[in-house]
Design brief:
Pfam families: UPRTase (PF14681). Residues 7-207 form the Phosphoribosyltransferase domain. Keywords: Allosteric enzyme, Glycosyltransferase, GTP-binding, Nucleotide-binding, Transferase. One of its GO terms (molecular function) is uracil phosphoribosyltransferase activity. Helices cover 33% and strands 31% of the residues. By secondary structure, the protein is α/β, with parallel strands linked by helices. The protein has a single domain, classed as Rossmann fold (3-Layer(aba) Sandwich), CATH 3.40.50. The strands form four sheets. Strands 1-11-9-7-4-5-6 form a seven-stranded mixed β-sheet, with helices on both faces. Strands 8-10-12 form a three-stranded parallel β-sheet. The longest helix is centred in the first third of the chain and has 19 residues, at 26-44.
Length: 210
Amino acid sequence: MENLTIIEHPVLQHKLTLLRNKQTKSCEFRRLLNEISGLLAYESTRDLELQAADIETPLEKMQGREVKEPPIIVSIMRAGNGMLDGLLTMLPFAGAGHIGIYRDRFIQNTVEYYFRLPKTSAGKQVLLADPLLATGDTAIACIDRLKQYGVSQITMLCVLVSEQGINKLYHFHPDVRVIALSKERDLNADGHLLPGVGDAGDRLYKTKDA
């Protein structure tokens, strides 16, 4: 899968191990995901185009370089919001949007309840943030909507992905880049990644007892 990148950097793998640990408290989980997201931002923006910028240092005038077209960061709510601050800290010039989509088990389909992007998003590169890519259904629905909006290259930033989810995503959207820290062994009967980190949203916002 040429569009899938698994990052094996020792610092990120160390942080991932702490993130996986069930003893890691919610406040630490948030901090770790924030730090991981900033490093994912660095990895995912290697191909941003630069343009010349005339500036003056304390000693002389010079021509530097700056990002020509800032990307749009889009969070898949709610767990994606745990990545947003880390991404925006690293890319403060980027715009941000939110998509609220979940998979309803009763109707066996995705349901959209919120969609808001900056008005300048058409034609822009998008960094789509969601810590976990499990079944792939939510990611596919979000990418469908982004393409309807007319964005350009979409890069999905995840912590963990499943083989099943990646295969399904690339069946519908082979052009989307995915950057993650691990491809997990399997999914359980409830669609949770194994070994995984548990429910990222619950661990971020302490909405379920340990």
